[in-house]
Amino acid sequence: MAFSTTKGTTTGLTFPHPDLTIIVGKPTYATVRKLQKELYANARTIPSTLGGGHNGHLALVMTNAEYHVISAVNYDEPVHPGAQPVHQANATAAQITEANRQYDATLLQVSLHVSVVNALRQQILCAVDNKYLMALEHPDLGYTVNPREMLVHLKTTYGDITPLEIELNRATLSAPWNPDDEIEDLWKRIITAQELAHRATDADEITDGVAMRLTIDALEASGVFDFALDNWRLKDDATKTMATFKEHFNKENAERQRKLTAKTGGYHGAHGADGNRPRDTPPPTPAPSSGTVTLPNGVMMYYCWSHGLGINPHHTSPNCTYKKDGHIATATADNMQGGSNRIMGPRQPRSRDVPPAGPGP
Fewer CB within 10 Å: N-end or C-end of the chain? Predict the structure, then answer.
């Protein structure tokens, strides 16, 4: 069985995670959990006929109890067959060939098993500071324990979820969301946060109701879903499930992106497609010093390198508060310097921002 050489290994094994995510400082529940997930993926990738033949070498990083949950067949570690077998004097050619084949197959299986063990162990040593594993180190031989023991040690010693982690985990749900990112990022946040809370204690569970309420905070902060949020609040409470929540905002986001695409086309047309502009209408007038553009209908738009054109006079390249990597503060509408050419959707007034009607006459 041949495997190509990849970065992070010297055994010729190909892993989906050639280098595990490095744990900076003391391991925590979250960092150990990520390490475990990457180790599981790597171990399963290398095929094996042992342990039922469906999970590769996953048993090398799982306890027997954990492995029995996914497989009814034990993973019995292969034993080295020893020296080349000595054949009986009266053995036939077919018997000799079969005995040699079985010996070679067992030897190859043992060799692969050892290679995977060594590779996974080395990956852990590269990802975790030695002082957090030194309790497992032999004074003369170094690390001879298998990766399963190393992972158990990390989970037992550092895998408890701290109150701070619980608090930060809940806060991720209401953290700002960039409308330029995919909305699926929000749904992934919810799944990750609920999973961690579930593994903490029952008292820290994040119900779907709580997750939706906190995610609404993030959607409100984005400023692009005001009407969608108002429509959501008008729905019957009995219909407000996580499934309908995602469905509602997936549709709203798709419509928002459709409108943005249409506006972007109009923006390009105003800049370069004379055939799309009436003959007697002058082209937009750029203002390099302020980063603005005056459209033919008299609307003034302001340019930001990270987000493009919008009607907010306080959102320009110099004073953008949500700068993307590489943001250029001197970019203007006539000299974008590689910045965004999108048109930002205008913020709509929220229902709660509308003053109540005064008393009648």
Answer: C
245 and 286 in a single domain? The answer is: no
Which of 318-349 are b and which e, b meaning 16 or more Cβ less than 10 Å from the residue's Cβ? eebeeeeeeebeebbbeebeebbebbbbeeee
Same domain, 286 and 249: no
- pTM exceeding 0.85: no
Mean pLDDT of 5-28: 77
The domain in which residue 306 lies consists of: 278-349
Q: Summarize pLDDT for 96-106 with one digit per residue, the tens.
A: 899 889 999 98
pLDDT in tens, 335-345: 888 888 777 75
CA angle at residue 75 from 74 to 78, to 5 degrees? 135
Separation CA 307–CA 342 (nearest Å): 7
- Residue 291: the pLDDT is 54
Does 209 or 267 have the greater pLDDT score? 209
Tell me which amino acid residue 84 is: Q
The answer on 118 and 46 residing in a single domain is yes
Same domain? 236 vs 152? no
- Residue 224, token pair as written in the block: 């692009």
Report if residue 273 sits inside a domain.
no
Of 227, 231, 193, nearest in space to 210 by CA = 193
| Average pLDDT of span 300-318 | 82
The position carrying tokens 């903490």 is 200
Alpha-carbon gap, residue 171 to 218, rounded angstroms: 10
- The model's pLDDT over 71-91, given as tens digits with 9 standing for 90+, comes to 999 999 998 988 888 888 888
- For 242-261, the DSSP string reads HHHHHHHHHHHHHHHHHHHH
* Dihedral angle, C-alpha 97, 99, 105, 107, nearest 10 °: -120
Nearest C-alpha neighbor of 148 from the set 283, 234, 51, 277: 51
Identify whether residues 183 and 241 lie together within a single domain.
yes
Look at residue 217 and tell me if it is in a domain: yes
